[in-house]
Each structure stands twice: as C-alpha cells, then as structure tokens.
Specification:
With 163 residues, the protein is of the alpha+beta class. The protein has one helix and 13 strands, in the order ββββαβββββββββ. The radius of gyration is 34 Å and the shape is rod-shaped. Bound molecules: zinc ion.
C-alpha cells in the first residue's frame, strides 16, 4: 500500500499499514497516516458510475434528436410532379415546388440537383441555396436553378433536399 508524506508529498510503498506516527526520510516531517484505500475505491466507483450514466443520457439524447430530425424531413419535400427542366441558351434550368405539409413554419434545406446521362452515370451533383429561408405551414415555395452541365448529355435529373 502507498502512503504519502503530507508535507513534501514523497510516496512510500509499505507492506503493512503503519500503526501510529511515521517519519518522512526525505524531509523529516512526522504525521499520522490515514487509511484512504477503501474510501478511494468507493469514490472511484461512484465517479465511474456517474460517468456511465452521463454517457447513457448523452447517447439517448442524440438518438432522440436524430429521430426527430428524420421525422421533420418528411414534412418538407420536393413535389416530384412539379419538376420541369427547360433547355435555353445551351443551359438547363430546373424548376419545381417545395411543399411544407406540416402545421408549422419550416426552415428550408439546400436543394441538391443530380443530373444523369443515358447510362445512368452522375454528370453533376450541385447544391443550391434554398429559394427562401422558411416555408409557411401548408404552403409551397417555387424554385428554379440553372445547371452548369452541357444539356445534350443530360437524360434525367433527380432533386433532393439536404440540410
Ligand atoms: Zn516528507
């Protein structure tokens, strides 16, 4: 077991706990060692137990937040039937509507437009700023973006919302 000089903090490794006063060989200080072993073990146990609980609470909170975010996403979406792509001046502009089906004001995420060629290869993956900051409950917001891809190559476009 270890005891420590309470004056110069020199540690001594002892086989048995001393009965009564001890004297430090380094500084000459005499003191009465107290048995700290049992208390330390208990304190360490309590500390690690608290840390474990804190970790569990944290993991739980993260999981709940993640689930709520996922649920939120369904309430704001791109109306796939509204999507139109127009070729003009050798450029493709893609337009459509973003719908908020919820009863609450929703923040709009970025709009990601992915274009594909005839062989289904991705030609471009472009992220655009949302057309507005918020969308009112039960309403739609129109968007229109111009892609920086040669329209001759594009066979299909997909639109996603990404925050
Ligand atoms: Zn000492």
């Amino acid at each position: 077991m270890k005891i420590e000089c309470d004056f110069c903090k020199t540690e001594y490794e002892l086989k048995k706990f001393p009965k009564g006063m001890v004297k430090c060989a380094v500084c000459g200080n005499t003191w009465l060692p107290h048995k700290p072993v049992w208390q330390n073990t208990l304190l360490k146990f309590i500390a690690s137990f608290c840390a474990l609980i804190a970790a569990c609470v944290f993991a739980f909170a993260v999981m709940i937040t993640y689930k709520e975010n996922k649920a939120d996403k369904k309430t704001v979406y791109v109306d796939q039937t509204s999507i139109q792509s127009i070729v003009q001046n050798n450029q493709v502009s893609v337009s459509g509507y973003i719908v908020n089906m919820s009863e609450d004001l929703q923040g709009l995420p970025n709009v990601v437009i992915i274009s594909y060629d005839a062989a289904n290869n991705v030609l471009s993956n472009q992220s655009f700023l949302p057309p507005a900051t918020f969308v009112e409950p039960k309403t739609t917001v129109a968007f229109s973006y111009t892609l920086s891809v040669n329209p001759v190559d594009i066979k299909r476009v997909a639109i996603e919302l990404k925050d």
